[in-house]
Design goal:
mainly alpha, 78% helix, globular, transmembrane helix
């Protein structure tokens, strides 16, 4: 009886996972399929197999969206944001986790409010301030905006990793004569590295796909990110949907490859962050 119940449970679990996998992969499969079709075929039937494989859609998308430049811009901006968020976030999370903060409840409320507050509330003041300072079309300035937006989430998550580290390790290192900086760098960072990797992947995904801030503060043709240049492919009256699907695949592919390569570390990091809050 128990064996039969176990088989039924496994069948239900795997059937549910199979349905969820199908729902997740269907949009990607349609994007790949339609990226190889002519625009007229997509309009007629987006689910049909192409009559002829249109590999030139990728060449046209690469040229028209100037991906040779915009992908590099996105990569540089994403890398700067990851470095800034992981550096400032890990240092702040370490202090919040290992020191007694009297105003912790107020600080928690501030971090949660900062995480949930929409960026539209700050967009106009930020733009006018950056314009007065001459920071429009400056990727470094945009990276600092991303850091301010994403840091509260990173701090809250990384704090759980630092809390999970036994206090005895810190005390033993301090007794041996290590400074707090050495304890942080040589003891804590290797232990919480899966959490930092998780934050890097999440922040990288957010930064790579971000549109509103990028299109507001990076307006020069040589400063556009890949997502903004992809948006500009769509015309007001007509659009080449095959080229647009190919461009979307070009943008998505680097993130998918990176996640597949690092998925084990990502899952370990997410599981480790739930050990202690």
């Amino acid at each position: 009886m128990r064996l039969s119940e176990s088989r039924i449970t496994y069948t239900i679990v795997y059937a549910t996972l199979g349905i969820l996998l199908f729902i997740t992969l269907l949009p990607i499969a349609l994007m790949v399929l339609n990226s190889l079709k002519a625009s007229s075929e997509i309009v007629q039937n987006p689910l049909a197999w192409p009559s002829r494989l249109r590999w030139d859609n990728f060449a046209n998308a690469w040229r028209d969206a100037n991906f040779a430049r915009t992908l590099l811009n996105s990569a540089v901006l994403t890398a700067m944001t990851i470095v800034l968020v992981c550096t400032t976030g890990s240092l702040t999370a370490y202090v919040l986790a290992r020191r007694k903060i009297k105003a912790w409840k107020i600080l928690t409320f501030y971090l949660l409010a900062s995480t949930t507050a929409p960026i539209q509330l700050f967009l106009f003041p930020l733009y006018f301030g950056f314009a007065r300072l001459g920071l429009i079309n400056n990727p470094i300035a945009v990276a600092f905006i991303y850091t301010a937006v994403y840091s509260p989430f990173a701090i809250m998550l990384l704090r759980t990793y630092f809390l999970a580290v036994p206090k005895e390790l810190e005390e033993a290192a301090l007794i041996d004569g290590a400074t707090h900086w050495q304890v942080f760098r040589r003891v804590f960072l290797p232990i919480v590295s899966p959490g930092i990797m998780t934050i890097a992947l999440i922040i990288g995904l957010y930064s790579w796909n971000e549109f509103l801030i990028a299109t507001t503060f990076l307006q020069g043709q040589d400063r556009l990110t890949a997502v903004v240049s992809f948006f500009l492919l769509s015309g007001q009256y007509s659009s080449d949907w095959g080229e647009i699907m190919a461009a979307a695949l070009i943008i998505v592919l680097p993130i998918v490859i990176l996640f597949v390569l690092l998925q084990r570390r990502f899952i370990e990091g997410m599981a480790g962050g739930s050990v202690k809050g």
